[in-house]
Amino acid sequence: MSAMPFSDVKACVFDAYGTLFDFASAARRCNDELGDSAAKLTALWRDKQLQYTWLRAAQGRHADFWQVTGDALDFALETMGIERPGLRERLMALYLTLDAFPEVPEVLRKLRAAGVRTAILSNGSPRMLEAAVRGSRLEGFFDAVLSVEAVGVYKPHPKVYQLAVDTLGLPAGAIAFQSSNAWDAHAASAFGMRVVWCNRYNQTRTAAWSPRRRNHDVVGTADTTGNRLTDLQLLYMARRCSSGAGCPSPASVRH
């Protein structure tokens, strides 16, 4: 794919959960109690967590992400019939110190070295994001860590993406947004940002996400996709091209 959509990018903004931080790591650390149920619990917990944010946004009944995460976990544990003393508290505590995906530190180092500004834009509460960044030893890698609490509504409301524009002082088209959530990437694209869809979970690409076809009922499409954040090498190439440093051949860039 051409790097031209990223030629004017000056900042990379990242979703947090599922993009930088592995939300499945909380349940994996409880394999001693969950065993083979860990993956199923993670999936149900995550699905209900997102559903609750959408419902709250649609109804104008905001509560912070810590409460939503706890409510979603309660639903998942009850649905699966898991009743173990102390497990809920253990899982919630682990959610504050999720593992970063392996490539994240190196990607951030390269972006910073290239002079690209970086930020997090997340549904997470400030306390949750601070704990995740600290626990993953990513302090100092971000110009800003932005929570939806500043605007009082969850993604995909446009106010959330405007928060990044206002904080960084850049137009939407100068920001590349990275998310593992197709709906989140779609909304950022509709807002006007350049988008890297980090499709870690092999979600099915719909017609709306095809680079050759747009769905007229849904606005926005990813500029590039991949399974890891190393697809940001496209951004390094674009920055070299726009700065006159010379462009590597397309074959030398991993897609």
Q: What would you note in describing this structure?
A:
α9 links the parallel β6 (175-179) and β7 (194-198). It is built from ten helices and eight strands. The strands form two sheets. A six-stranded parallel beta sheet has the order 5-4-1-6-7-8, with helices on both faces. 39% of the residues are buried. The chain folds into two domains: 4-21 and 100-252, HAD superfamily/HAD-like (Rossmann fold); 24-95, DNA polymerase, domain 1 (Orthogonal Bundle). It is globular. By secondary structure, the protein is α/β, with parallel strands linked by helices.
Read across the widest sheet, the strand sequence of neighbours is: 5-4-1-6-7-8
Output the radius of gyration: 18 Å
State the end-to-end distance: 8 Å
Question: On the 0-100 scale, what is the average pLDDT?
Answer: 86
Q: Structural class of the helices, strands and pairings?
A: alpha/beta
In short:
This protein is α/β, with parallel strands linked by helices and 255 residues long. Helix content is 42%, strand content 12%. The chain folds into two domains: 4-21 and 100-252, 3-Layer(aba) Sandwich (Rossmann fold); 24-95, Putative phosphatase, domain 2 (DNA polymerase, domain 1, Orthogonal Bundle), CATH 1.10.150.240.
